[in-house]
Automatic annotation (TrEMBL):
Pfam family, one: Glyoxalase
Superkingdom of origin: Bacteria
PANTHER family from the UniProt entry: GB|AAF24581.1, GLYOXALASE-RELATED
Designated name of the protein: VOC family protein
């Protein structure tokens, strides 16, 4: 694949009600959903008008009995899943699901950083005849509606998180923003001459129970998206906040309890 070691390449919604989640997000973000034929489970892909963005994993009773809850999880592409798992564990991270193969798709493992924020590592198999195929789930180089625009880690120990992700994936700090008493919002990019912005790490905010990733998906009208969220069973966590560049970000919880982020323009201010 053309994506590099350390790129975000897929996003997954783990949910207790896939039909309801599909209805909510298809209207909120405009995704089209299709059933995957790669597994024998009810795994659904969601796509923008450009390409696939991610998938929906139904939570079984066995999963919830084991502590799984609705959540968004990101996939980080790596050159070798097994080597990455070993390095993650050696650096204080944890393994939650042993590496496994999905025929025709790739090799995957479910892990967490030393502070407990969960993510997948994956070595994908390129589509037949497309050895340089590239995931566009994360819109790293240009804005794309329906795609992830920003990856944000809230960590109980940002300094340790920076060292961990830097060692595992080559991410480096590229500036910061002072949040006063709340600490610093530190920007991350891939650390090579082709590096692009990935997102940011920030201190865990008051009321947040544990370290976790939030993924911000692009919408054409942030206020319309917020109103839709409120009217359809979602719960706002933070009302639209202006960000550098003049757009606005919003965070909320979907009707099943998964936290999500949105970013987009405020139509009235264009």
């Amino acid at each position: 694949m053309a994506n590099r070691h350390g790129d975000f390449i897929w996003y997954e919604l783990m949910t207790s009600a896939p039909d309801a989640a599909q209805e909510f997000y298809s209207r909120l973000i405009g995704w089209t959903f299709t059933n995957s034929d790669a597994t024998d489970t009810d795994y659904r892909h969601f796509s923008s008008a450009i390409s696939d963005v991610g998938g929906v994993l139904p939570l079984t009773s066995e999963m919830t009995d084991g502590g799984a809850r609705p959540a968004w999880v990101g996939y980080v592409g790596v050159q070798d899943v097994d080597a990455s798992v070993a390095a993650i564990q050696a650096a204080g991270g944890s393994l939650h699901m042993e590496p496994w193969d999905i025929p025709g798709v790739g090799r995957i493992a479910f892990v967490a950083d030393p502070q407990g924020a969960m993510f997948y590592v994956m070595t994908p198999i390129p589509p037949e005849g497309q050895p340089d195929a590239e995931s566009r789930s994360f819109a790293a180089m240009e804005p794309m509606e329906g795609h992830c625009a920003w990856n944000e880690l809230a960590s109980s120990d940002p300094a340790s998180a920076k060292a961990f992700y830097g060692k595992q994936f080559g991410w480096v700090q590229d500036g910061d923003m002072d949040m006063g008493d709340l600490g610093k919002y530190e920007f991350w990019k891939v650390g090579d001459d082709r590096g692009h912005m990935i997102g940011a790490v920030m201190p865990l905010m008051p009321g947040m129970p544990m370290s976790a990733w939030t993924f911000y998906f692009r919408v054409p009208d942030i206020d319309a998206a917020v109103e839709y969220t409120k009217a359809n069973g979602g719960t706002p966590l933070q009302e639209p906040t202006e960000i550098p560049g003049g757009e606005f970000s919003f965070t909320g919880i979907d009707p099943q309890g998964a936290g999500f982020g949105l970013v987009g323009p405020r139509k009235g201010s264009e």
